[in-house]
């Protein structure tokens, strides 16, 4: 499953290629992905201009001049390739290489952009991804969007917001960070990394980020800051434009090289030298340093 920073690099790559582009023919090679495509999918896209490409959690949002939004999720193995002239490029950078096999090309969108004609191809071997069309005004009520918590890279996300969300909760801090209804899209890797950076034990009580009167503690402010920081650094490491395949496949460890605790059980903590431990929390692996995370 791609993490939020990976999806953001996809968004940036697609935005480079497609912002302002006019959609031409749309071909679907099957009836759907995880779910069937919406009714008249191709004809609702054809002729529309893509005004902007946004993101909510791990959902990509293509805002069309028809007033509809193309909602897309990469699932486990989805990717977009951009084909222009004789060259192909991957939108975004992934920790694990993506398929380019034509048998898994499920949607092919022709478009006319500022730099000429291009094709955008959605490939997804496991087909856990999905696409839907929704009126922009209905987006917040879409079943996949409606229950999502605060966006960790939005201006509204800070220590005060985090304390308000976690106040009174007796779940472990790490589990609360993975609860999509509270904060959307941090994911397991970056929850571990942010807690390590903030020197906070993952087993702490989530409610402890708020004082008895509901105010944010210094730990809450520190954690919110570190969450934004780890996500921003991961996005920067993934680059911001289209990647040719040599780059995309040759450096799958680009995100991973920055991890301080994730996947490093038994290694010395880069900060204090203590041994990094792995524990299970809510069915997920948590990597942490019991010596300096309190
Ligand atoms: Zn440590």
What does this structure look like?
This protein has 294 residues and is an alpha+beta fold. Helices cover 24% and strands 24% of the residues. It contains seven helices and twelve strands. The chain has helices spanning 4-18, 41-45, 159-166, 173-178, 187-197, 218-238, 245-250; strands at residues 22-28, 50-56, 59-64, 68-73, 79-84, 87-91, 105-113, 116-123, 130-135, 242-243, 277-281, 284-288. The strands form three sheets. It has a six-stranded antiparallel β-sheet. It has a four-stranded antiparallel β-sheet with strand order 2-3-4-9. Strands 11-12 form a two-stranded antiparallel ribbon. A hairpin with a 3-residue loop joins strand 3 (59-64) and strand 4 (68-73). Helix 1 packs across helix 6 (218-238), helix 3 crosses helix 6 (218-238) and helix 5 (187-197) crosses helix 6. The protein is elongated and about 55 Å long. It starts with a helix and ends in a 6-residue tail after the last strand. Residues 269, 271-272, 274, 289, 291-292 line the site of zinc ion.
Features:
six-stranded antiparallel beta sheet, 7 helices, elongated, single chain, binds zinc ion, alpha+beta, four-stranded antiparallel beta sheet, 294 residues
List the helices and strands and how they pair.
Elements: H1 4-18, E1 22-28, H2 41-45, E2 50-56, E3 59-64, E4 68-73, E5 79-84, E6 87-91, E7 105-113, E8 116-123, E9 130-135, H3 159-166, H4 173-178, H5 187-197, H6 218-238, E10 242-243, H7 245-250, E11 277-281, E12 284-288
Antiparallel strand pairs: 1-7, 2-3, 3-4, 4-9, 5-6, 5-8, 6-10, 7-8, 11-12
Helix pairs in contact: 1-6, 3-6, 5-6
Zinc ion is lined by residues 269, 271-272, 274, 289, 291-292.
């Amino acid at each position: 499953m791609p993490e939020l920073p990976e999806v953001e690099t996809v968004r940036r790559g697609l935005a480079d290629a497609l912002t302002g582009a006019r959609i031409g023919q749309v071909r679907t090679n099957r009836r759907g992905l995880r779910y069937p495509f919406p009714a008249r999918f191709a004809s609702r896209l054809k002729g529309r201009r893509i005004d902007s490409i946004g993101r909510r959690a791990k959902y990509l949002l293509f805002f069309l001049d028809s007033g509809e939004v193309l909602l897309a999720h990469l699932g486990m193995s989805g990717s977009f390739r951009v084909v222009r002239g004789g060259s192909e490029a991957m939108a975004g950078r992934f920790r694990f290489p993506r398929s380019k096999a034509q048998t898994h090309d499920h949607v092919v969108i022709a478009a006319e952009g500022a730099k000429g004609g291009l094709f955008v191809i959605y490939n997804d071997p496991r087909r856990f991804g999905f696409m839907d069309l929704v009126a922009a005004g209905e987006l917040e009520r879409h079943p996949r969007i409606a229950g999502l918590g605060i966006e960790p890279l939005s201006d509204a996300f800070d220590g005060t917001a985090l304390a308000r969300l976690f106040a009174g909760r007796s779940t472990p801090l790490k589990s609360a960070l993975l609860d999509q209804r509270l904060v959307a899209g941090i994911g397991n890797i970056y929850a571990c990394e942010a807690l390590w950076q903030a020197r906070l034990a993952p087993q702490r009580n989530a409610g402890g980020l708020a004082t008895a009167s509901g105010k944010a503690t210094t730990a809450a402010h520190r954690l919110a800051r570190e969450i934004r920081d780890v996500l921003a650094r991961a996005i920067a490491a993934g680059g911001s434009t289209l990647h040719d395949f040599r780059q995309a496949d040759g450096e799958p460890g680009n995100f991973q090289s920055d991890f301080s605790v994730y996947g490093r059980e038994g290694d010395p903590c880069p900060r204090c030298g203590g041994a990094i431990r792995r524990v299970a929390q809510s069915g997920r692996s948590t990597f942490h340093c019991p010596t300096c995370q309190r």
